[in-house]
Structures are given as structure tokens and as C-alpha cells.
Amino acid sequence: MKIFIHYDHPSTVSELVRKISAKGIDVSAGRGAPEEPVDWWIEWGEGKKIDLEAAERYFNVPWEQRRTGKSQMEAILSLNHLQAFLGDDGTDWPVSVWPKEYLLYLWDSKVVGVQRKILLTQQLRDLTSNKAFIPSFQWVDQLSPWEEERLAAIAMRALHCLGLDFGKVHLGINRSRGPILLGIERSPTVHKRLAQLYADAIVNSMEEWKREAVFSLGSDPEFMLFLTPGQRMVPASRFFPRTGVIGCDNRRAFGASDDLPLAEVRPEPAKTVTDAMKQLRSALHEANRLCPYSNVAWYAGSEPYPGYPIGGHIHFGGLRPNSQLIRALDQYLAMPLLFLENGETAARRRQFYGSLGDYRLKPHGFEYRTPSSWLTSPELAWVALSLASLVGRCYKYLCHWDFYQFEVQEAFYKGRVEELLPLLKTALLELNAVEPSEETKKLTQTFWSLYEKGQGMREEVDLRETWRLPVGLQRYRYVPRPRHNFSWITGNVMR
User: Fold this and answer.
1) Domain end: 59, 88, 106, which one?
2) Which of 17, 56, 186, 192 is least surrounded by Cβ atoms within 10 Å, i.e. has the fewest?
3) What domain of life (predicted)?
4) In this structure, are 9 and 83 located in the same domain?
5) Is 137 left (phi over 0), alpha (psi -120 to 50) or beta?
6) CB 16 within 8 A of CB 198
7) How many other CB atoms are found less than 10 A from the CB of residue 137?
8) Nearest residue to 383 via CA among 346, 339, 350
């Protein structure tokens, strides 16, 4: 494979080019376009002269109309539920505000390296002989589980929502506000250790890219239980265990310490959509065996009960996430499913969950967490799993991403589907073009039929009815559990 690095200043990448070349990779760099077609174009600059026809894949493409001002970047980050104080140049905030600061260097949805600075407390500073001592950033060999789960995820989401494939993210930790984005640099200067880290990451990314996309498809959609007639929520933990094919999510009910309100279906992974649907139906039959009561209804969607958003996470086993794959899932899975959701509850859910590019690494691969629970009907479940499977197979050829525009992201989070309809039609045409088969044609036709008939995520319909699960004659007698009282401060506090 051939790599071309386009730069504005040669000093920023000269050492990186030498490191990559030392690994036997055909790499070149320059201010203009390459003389011959290349496989990868890495934009290590502002990208004003980029040639979008010269390479198979691009990194840090300057999407049209991209807003690069600090205030516009803060607006996009805020829309994606990320706190940002970028300031004039991203580094002018007082150091004393941030007990800890981090510099995270990212490449293609992976952490390349981390530097950390810990501000000394006043007591420790008084004991230091050098009163002018100022802590500096130090390399971190291994992140703690909390740092990896929170900080790395925030940094990756920040680059993702800005349409960047790599860069440097400056984070500050404040006890009262949590992780704060202090700066984002799309083309960091790389020397010495950092140049070696980026060279290793780029070579590893190339090796992963050349592998054929072979993966298994899994899921863990959630649903909730209600006592009928009426809408009294019944915790799923009254019927289902925590682990197993059918279990409970770890989120607890408001005001109770033991009840787990969300049921979770965890079918075995499968190689095909047909097998995945069989496993899903089998898991639902197991759930019906554990909860066979006629007066307990099952509801899915975005937020069946106020204050309890639920999701339809899709797992990709054996496939490692990269920036192009995550963008393709946003464009060709999350956006189409938006048109089948309940607009009001979906908008409420996205205030807390379901952000663009929301994924989580797993030992088997990763799970994509943006969609709502598509468990409301077998037709919708088939559409969701089929779209996921198609994107997983063909994401290398699905390069379009409309979410670089602030207005498109805002329409997505607010649920204004009429503004996104032209983009949806284009996305469906691209899916048919990238894999022209009868299965893809059936998929797009089924999706469009559900959309036109308004038969998407019907949160008011018992999913046992749509899945044709047998309902028993037994009736469940609901007994409320008392809330827990605490008296560790003056008076009684109800939790």
C-alpha cells in the first residue's frame, strides 16, 4: 500500500515519514498532490488543496463548510453532550482550575499515546524546595480503567463529531464539572517518541484495513415491563436473572436499591442475519417462559417509561472499530432508524444516550450504541440487523458522512426527520449501489414500507403481540417494595 502525507509545514511530519518508511511502507509527503494514485491520503494540515480523487481512503478530510472556529466547535461539542472550554487558542485557561490535565493522541479510533499532568496541592508545594516548580506533562504507559472508559471515550467522540480521524485532545479534570475539553488540534507536531507511536499505529491500522471484513453479529436490545391495565412499571428483576440469554441491565430504578427495571435480550452471536433473527426469537421465547403473565405487557422503543431511555445495541464480533466504520454506522444505520422511531421519545432519549459515534470496545470486538431499541417488531429487528450487517461488510466503500454539518447533527438530535429526508434517500441509493442484490433491494423496500405506513417503533404495542409469542392465562400480583430509608444525616432521607 502507498501512503501520501499532505502537510503545510514539513517539520511537523518529517520524522514520522522516516519512521513509517523504516517499516518498509511506501510513503511520501509534500505540499501538493502526489504524482501517482495512492491508497491512503493523510491530511496533516488544513487540507485546503486536497484532491478527493487521488486516494482510496482519506484521513482528516476537510469536509465542505466545516466550521473550525472555536465557538462553532464548542457548539458542535455541546450538541453532542461534551463540555468544552476551548477559549481563544484552547490553552489559555488557568492551570489552577484543573487538578489533572491530559493530552490524548488518537489515530483512527484508537489511543496512540497519553500524557498527564497532575497539579501539586498547596501542602506538597510548600514541602518542595523549589518554590518555582511547575508540573509538566509526563507520558503515561497505562491508563486506569476509569481513565480508559471515560477520558479515551470522550476524546474519541470529540474528534468523531468534528469529522476528524486523528488529532490531539487536551482534557482537564475538575471535581465539580468532570472531564472538560480544553483544546483540540487536528494536526499535532510529532517528534521522537510520538512519531514512533503514530508510525506504529498507522502500520497496524493498514494491516487491519487489508483484512477481509469477517465478523459475527450480536445484539442486546432492551425492553420494559408494565402492569395492565394502566401503565405501572414492573421491574424486570422480578422475573429475569442478571446474566444469561435474557437478563437485566445494571441500571437501577429510581428510589429503590434492588430493583432493576430494564430487561435485556442477549441472543447468541450469528454469522448471518437469518441466524441472528432465529437466536433473537429463541431468546424472546425464553423470556416468555420466565414471564408468562397475561397482565404484564412488554414495551420497547426509545423511552417506554418517562426517565428510562433504552437502547438496541448491536455487536460486531471479530471486527475492530475505525473512524470510517463508525461514520458509516452513523450514516447508514443510525440515520435510517431515526425515521422509524417515535420522534418525541427519541429526542428525549438523545439528551442522555444515543449520541453519534457512540460505541464501546468489547473483548470480542465492539458494540454500536446509538440506536434505540428496535425490538418492537420482527420486521424492524430484521431491518436493523440487516443494515448493520450490510454496513459491516461494505463500510470501506461507504465514504459519505453528512453529519459534518452542524445543522444536520442538530436535526438528528432534535428528531427533525423532514430535514434529513433527502439525505436518507441518498443513503438508501448508495446502499443499493454498493451491494446490488435482491437482499439489499428487499431491505430498502421493507424499510421504506415501514416508514410510509408509520409502523416503526410503536412503543404503545405489546411486543409479544408483534412477535406472536403465546400469552399465558396467569395473572401477576404486583406487590410494591418499600423504599430504603437512611438516617446518616439529620432527619430521614429517602433514597
Assistant:
1) 59
2) 192
3) Bacteria
4) no
5) beta
6) yes
7) 14
8) 339
**Domain count of the fold of the chain:** 3
- 236 in Cβ contact with 59 (< 8 Å): no
The answer on 388 and 314 residing in a single domain is: yes
- Of 204, 188, 203, 190, which is closest to residue 20 (Cα–Cα)? 203
Question: And the C-alpha cell for 45?
Answer: 494540515
The tens place of each residue's pLDDT in the chain, 495 residues long, gives 899 998 888 778 899 999 999 999 999 998 888 888 899 999 998 766 566 677 889 998 866 545 567 888 889 999 999 988 887 544 455 544 678 899 999 999 999 999 998 876 655 555 555 555 567 889 998 888 888 888 999 999 999 999 999 999 999 987 767 789 999 998 898 988 999 999 999 999 999 998 888 899 999 999 999 998 878 889 999 999 999 999 998 888 776 567 889 999 999 999 999 999 999 999 999 999 999 999 999 999 999 988 899 999 999 999 999 999 999 999 999 999 999 998 888 999 998 889 999 999 999 999 999 999 999 999 999 999 999 999 999 999 998 899 988 999 999 999 999 999 999 999 999 999 999 999 999 999 999 999 998 878 888 899 999 999 998 888 988 777 665 544 334 443 333
3-state secondary structure of 325: helix
Global pTM value: 0.90
Q: How far apart are CA 408 and CA 451, in angstroms?
A: 20
Same domain, residue pair 338 and 442: yes
Q: Are 379 and 360 in the same domain?
A: yes
Q: 348 is in which domain, residue-wise?
A: 216-220+296-466
Contact 119, 99 (CB under 8 A): yes
Say if 37 falls within a structural domain: yes
CA distances to 94, 99, 119, 422 from 128, rounded to whole Å, are 21, 17, 13, 63
Alpha helix locations (H) across 332-462? 335-338, 343-349, 378-394, 406-414, 417-434, 438-453
Q: Please report the beta strands in 364-458, taking only residues with DSSP state E, as ranges in sequence order.
A: 365-368
Contact 362, 319 (CB under 8 A): no
Q: Are residues 29 and 86 in the same domain?
A: no
